[in-house]
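Thread: "does anyone have the structure for this chain?"

Original post by V.I.:
We have the sequence but no experimental structure in hand. Need at least a predicted one for the grant figures.
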Amino acid sequence: MELLSWSIMAFVVPAVVFAGVSKGGFGSGVAFASSSILALVLPPAMAVGLMLPLLMLMDVASLWAYWQKWDWGVAKVLMLGAIPGTILGAVFWASADPDMIRLLIGAVALLFVAWQGVRALGLVRLGARLGSGAGVTSGVVLGFTSFISHAGGPAAAVYMLGQGLSKTKFQATTVLVFWAVNLFKAIFYGFMGIFTAQTLMLDLILIPFALVGTWLGVKAHHMLPERWFFGITYVALTLTGAKLIWDALT
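Reply from O.Q.:
Generated one for you, C-alpha cells below.
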C-alpha cells in the first residue's frame, strides 16, 4: 500500500492534527478517534502502528505543559490496572483477524458515543468517589482498549470523573497515565511487528503536524469551550464506528 498517496494523506494529516489537539488538552480522551478514522483507509495494524509513535511524541510534548499538576494517587491506580490490560490486549491481537479488530474498534467508537449520551441525559452519574478497586478495573479496560485502538481514554475517565479532579488536574493525570501506558505497549508493538518501515517513515513526515496539533490543544484548553469539538467528534465516531462494523461483517 502506498501511504504517501493523496487519498491516504487526506485522511492521515487531519487525523494526526486532531489527535494532537485532543492530547494537548482540548477534547480530552478522544484522541483515539484518529485511529478509528485511519482504520477506514488503512489495515487496522497499520492504523494503530502509525499512530502510536505520534501519540508518544504528543505525550512528551504535552507532559511539560502539565508537569506535576497531576494526581499521582489516581494515576498510580490506573497504571497498575493497565499492565494486565495491555497484556490481554496483546494476546487478543495475536489471535484475532483484521475484521475482528475492525469490529472491536468500531464497537468501542459507538459505545463511547452511547456512554456520553447516557451521561448527558443524566441516566448515569459519577458523583460518588470510586475506590481503588474500581480504579484498577478501569485500568485493565484502559490497557486493553488502548492496545487495540488507542481508546483507553473513556475507561480512564470513568474512574477519574469520580475523583473530583479539576479540569487541569484531570488532563495532567490523563497525560501522565497514557505516557506510561504507551511506552509499555510500544514494547509489544515492536515485538509483534505492528510497527513497519513504512509507518515509521511516514511518522517522521507527520511530526510537525503532531506538534502543531498538540500546541493548539494546550492553547485551546485554557481559552475555548469544548462543546463544538465534542459535537464534531461524536458525529465522526458514529459514522466511522458504523462503517468499520459494516466492513467487518460484510
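V.I.: this helps a lot. The CA atoms of residues 22 and 59 lie 11 Å apart.
O.Q.: and The mean pLDDT is 82.
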